[in-house]
Automatic annotation (TrEMBL):
It comes from Polyplosphaeria fusca. This is Uncharacterized protein. It comes from the Eukaryota. Gene3D superfamilies: 2.40.128.20.
Amino acid sequence: MAAPSEKTAADMNGRWRLNKGLSGNTNELMTLQGVSWIMKKAISLADIIICITQRGTGAETVVVLENTANFGLRGTTETRLLNWISTSHKDPIWGHVHGRSKFLSAGEAAQEASLTGLFQHFGMSAQDIIYSEAEAADGTWKSQMLWGFELIEGTRYFVRNTRVCRGSKQATAQIVYDYIP
């Protein structure tokens, strides 16, 4: 279902279902992140829903993402502080992860050379975006993610454009979500 027009990076509160038909290939991303074959298979078959709770404004914003899946897969909870200060957490899928996030304007994203391929390639035109970086605590992989809203085939969706790098290898994918009223 289309994302309501009032939903923006400043208010993503709600439930969102992964749209596998519109999303890119996340298998490559997970391979670079060291996710096991069996876990990748389970994730590919699961119905994945994220419940987002967002509070605060500007650098005081806190975004909590509760990821749930069927098939008895253990869900994950991510807490993102949008103050660009690195935090750490242990994730049951990705292990120990360090990450940081912040709001970013479309203009800033378009000017940032390291984001080429996440912004321009996917044609993001959002005026407000959340930018996140994450890294395995052991340094084996790094990721960059732009969160925002985009028109795809004439319908507005919540998207997370993602790049994962491991050594000289990298993969990108657009991850698309339907709004659940």
